[in-house]
Write a structure and sequence with these properties.
Elements lengths: L3 E8 L3 H12 L4 E4 L8 H4 L3 E2 L12 H10 L5 E3 L4 H13 L3 H15 L2 H10 L2 H4 L2 E2 L3 E5 L2 H16 L5 E4 H7 L9 E5 L3 E3 L2 H8 L7 E2 L3 E7 L2 E6 L4 E9 L5 H6 L8 E11 L9 E3 L4 E5 L4 E10 L8 H15 L7 E9 L6 E4 L6 E5 L5 H16 L17
Parallel strand pairs: 1-2, 1-13, 2-10, 4-17, 6-15, 13-20
Antiparallel strand pairs: 3-9, 5-9, 6-8, 7-8, 11-12, 12-13, 14-17, 14-18, 16-17, 19-20
Helix pairs in contact: 1-13, 6-13
This protein binds flavin-adenine dinucleotide (FAD).
The site of flavin-adenine dinucleotide has 44 residues, from helix 1, helix 2, strand 14, strand 17 and strand 18.
Length: 413
């Protein structure tokens, strides 16, 4: 059977794939989005829902060395490694540790910042076309609340760094934190408000609303292989079909590296497992995402009285079952901080796609420039999806900024 010809195929219907497909459609391209499940049902479903345009400090930084013992030996620290998986994780871990120094962190911070500066411009035109999605955004800033003097002290270097980079932030004392979020009274020693940040009251619904113009252009299937050929790039799916495309955008989140490997490109994409617990509340306890910094999760008020506490990191295999010790840790901390008696109603685990330098891979593949990469957004995929879609569309039109070359996968060779 002759494969159907397509102009652009986007693989993956998470935040990033949806935004790429929308930007390409705006540029007048014929786009097919391939996704086996509901849209935004994986990592783009269960995150902390913040547009964290201030989040330029990569988790790969020099402070990791001081935290290495707790990372390796405490199962209750916010960042843990599953010991039995260390042999498998070692190649990624070694590359990651290679980025944990001042020089590399500075480069990576600047690379993230350049993308973060495009957070809102990357979404604006998409939101103009979808008032339903825009209605799910709440603009109240995000709050960091330090719960210990030691934590506040450790946070000062990052506060100074953001200051030097011109990121808008207001440093607060304990009373000012409590004025913003009364439930945090007595629970903090100070904090930082990021006034430009927003949050989304329901991320899956938000991306599904944004994706409405793609109706009729979505194929429900799992891509098995991507094979560049003379007359196009062949995309084979698990339903037996093959699509031939002029260009392919690979935006399959944590699953992207295995598809890149199907046409011979090895990219050191790792997975940071993250968790959430949700409480169904009678009354809203917080009005904005609030992060008790030392615990490494956000507590975000969502639509329908839900409070979601999302965050922490576990390095393990995607195949390992959910680690309930992680969700119990988050649940207990939230109940303590918010004086909640009720148990959590739901628990979830998702896979953040993370490169060792914490910078996404964006732009043409080295193997074949007709395949473009858009993955590896680690803790920032909701924030950066719009900006990524815009850059990928710019790339296809030959109007991408020169600096986009720094985001190529070739930086790992
Ligand atoms: C606990 C937690 C909290 C977070 N909080 C925030 C936050 O507050 N702000 C923020 O900006 N980011 C946050 N993130 C990160 C953010 O959620 C991710 O970076 C983002 O969702 C990644 O989007 P994506 O589209 O790349 O991947 P995904 O959402 O995982 O989408 C990838 C899609 O590809 C599809 N796919 C996979 N394989 C194939 C295949 N073979 N063929 C076709 N399709 C395929 C999958 O089904 C999936 O739908 C958080 C993450 C976690 C885990």
């Amino acid at each position: 059977m002759t494969p159907r010809h397509n102009e652009i195929v986007v693989i993956g219907g998470g935040a990033v794939g949806i935004a790429c497909a929308l930007w390409l459609r705006r540029d007048g391209h014929q786009v097919t989005l391939i996704e086996p499940n509901a849209l935004a049902a994986e990592c783009s479903f269960g995150n902390a829902s913040t547009l964290a345009e201030y989040g330029c400090t990569p988790i790969a930084n020099a402070s990791v060395w001081g935290r290495l013992p707790s990372l390796l030996f405490s199962q209750d620290s916010p960042f843990v490694v599953r010991w039995s998986r260390i042999p498998q994780l070692m190649p990624w871990l070694l590359r990651f540790l290679g980025q944990c120094n001042t020089h590399a962190a500075k480069t990576n911070t600047h690379r993230l910042l350049r993308l973060l500066e495009r957070t809102y411009s990357g979404y604006e035109p998409l939101l103009e076309a979808s008032p339903e999605a825009a209605a799910l955004i709440r603009r109240r800033g995000c709050l960091y609340a330090y719960t210990t003097e030691q934590g506040m002290q450790a946070g000062r270097a990052e506060i100074a760094l953001r200051e030097s980079l011109g990121i808008e932030q207001e440093v607060l004392n304990a009373n000012q934190v409590a004025d913003l979020e009364p439930v945090m009274a007595g629970q903090n020693v100070g904090g930082v408000l990021f006034p430009r940040s927003c949050h989304i009251r329901n991320t899956q619904q938000f991306f599904q609303n944004l994706a409405a113009p793609l109706q009729g252009s979505i194929k429900r299937a799992r891509v098995q292989r991507v094979v560049p050929q003379d007359h196009g790039v062949a995309v084979s799916c698990d339903d037996g079909s093959t699509l031939l495309a002029d260009r392919v955008v690979l935006a399959a989140g944590a699953w992207s590296a295995q598809l890149a490997a199907s046409f011979g490109e090895r990219i050191p994409l790792g997975v940071e497992r993250g968790f959430h617990v949700e409480f169904d509340l009678e009354e809203e306890l917080l009005t904005r995402p609030t992060c008790p910094v030392e615990s490494a999760f956000y507590m975000t008020p969502l639509e329908g009285g839900r409070l979601r506490a999302a965050g922490t990191v576990e390095l393990a295999s995607m195949r390992d079952p959910i680690n309930l010790r992680r969700t119990n840790y988050i649940e207990e901390r939230v109940r303590q901080i918010l004086h909640l008696e009720q148990p959590a109603s739901r628990r979830w685990m998702g896979f953040r796609p993370t490169l060792p330098d914490c910078v996404p891979v964006l732009g043409p593949s080295r193997q074949d420039p007709r395949v473009l990469y858009a993955f590896g957004h680690q803790h920032l995929g909701i924030t950066l999806a719009g900006a990524t879609g815009q850059l990928i569309a710019d790339c296809i039109h030959g109007r991408a900024p020169q600096w986009l070359d720094e985001y190529s996968a070739s930086r790992f060779t």
